[in-house]
């Protein structure tokens, strides 16, 4: 089930700044060559990530789930002058392609790519983060929230992608996949946390914005 109708999506794209050429090519190459290309953030969500980053001007960003590098490049476009983005992915086969576009986008020195399981890599990151984008295995979101909480500065944000899980979150429980159930339990966890404020955006597949008070 599509959360947003095709017509509304086309309207949103029409009134959103066009996808930059490099990201358009990355988008195309992902659809031509890589498994599960629908995982890529895409035009509107990509511009949203850039705009959030430009509003915050973060010094440190963590992304969990690099895939082909699309969202990492979008987020890096708003980094502060001395800012740096860390991105993690378990799939080493994607490293060459994401790295090639990161270099072409001019972010080779400002984006560090980590290959491995996020749960193993996060504890090794000795940084205080302003912005975290969670976009990896759905069953892992709750654990990433806990692991990242102490590393997120007060007033910092976490954005979690796919929280509507293709609309499955509102189906009968028997019709929900395990990933949809994981998204529901993640949203419950965040909204029940009195250290946090949450906002669920019904953009694309749903993005939960979480602010650390
Ligand atoms: C939805 S895609 C990320 C899309 C990307 N953020 C974008 O918008 O273009 C999810 C990625 O998470 C990675 N992943 C899955 N489980 C992971 C784990 N335990 N640790 C790190 N990465 C993981 C997958 O290999 C996949 O590339």
Average of the residue pLDDT scores? 97
User: What's the CATH topology label?
Assistant: Rossmann fold
Strand elements, count: 7
- Going by CATH, the architecture would be 3-Layer(aba) Sandwich
Order of helices and strands: HHHEHEHEHEHEHEE
Which structural class should the secondary elements be placed in?
alpha/beta
Tally the helices: what do you get?
Answer: 8
Please state the overall shape, judged from the principal axes of the Cα atoms: globular
Largest sheet: 7 strands, mixed
> For the largest beta sheet, what order do the strands appear in spatially?
3-2-1-4-5-7-6
Terminal Cα span: 35 Å
The CATH homologous superfamily is called Vaccinia Virus protein VP39
What does this structure look like?
With 213 residues, this protein is an alpha/beta fold. It has one domain: 3-Layer(aba) Sandwich (Rossmann fold), CATH 3.40.50.150. It is 38% helix and 21% strand. A seven-stranded mixed sheet has the order 3-2-1-4-5-7-6, with helices on both faces. A hairpin with a 5-residue loop joins strand 6 and strand 7 (207-212). The site of S-adenosylmethionine has 18 residues, from helix 4 and strand 2.
């Amino acid at each position: 089930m599509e959360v947003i109708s095709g017509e509304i999506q086309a309207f949103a794209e029409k009134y959103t700044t066009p996808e930059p050429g490099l990201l358009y090519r990355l988008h195309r190459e992902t659809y031509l060559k890589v498994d599960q290309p629908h995982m890529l953030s895409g035009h509107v969500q990509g511009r949203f990530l850039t705009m959030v980053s430009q509003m915050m001007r973060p010094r440190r960003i963590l992304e969990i789930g690099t895939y082909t590098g699309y969202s990492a490049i979008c987020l890096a476009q708003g980094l502060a002058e001395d800012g740096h983005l860390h991105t993690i992915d378990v799939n080493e086969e994607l490293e060459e392609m994401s790295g090639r576009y990161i270099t072409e986008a001019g972010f080779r020195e400002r984006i560090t790519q980590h290959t491995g399981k996020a749960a193993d890599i996060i504890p090794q990151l000795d940084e205080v983060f302003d912005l975290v984008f969670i976009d990896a295995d759905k069953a892992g979101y709750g654990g990433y929230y806990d692991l990242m909480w102490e590393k997120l500065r007060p007033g910092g944000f976490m954005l979690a992608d796919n929280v509507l899980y293709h609309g499955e979150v509102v189906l009968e429980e028997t019709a929900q996949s395990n990933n949809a159930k994981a998204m529901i339990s993640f949203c419950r966890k965040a909204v029940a946390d009195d250290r946090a404020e949450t906002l669920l955006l019904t953009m694309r597949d749903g993005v939960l914005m979480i602010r650390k008070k």
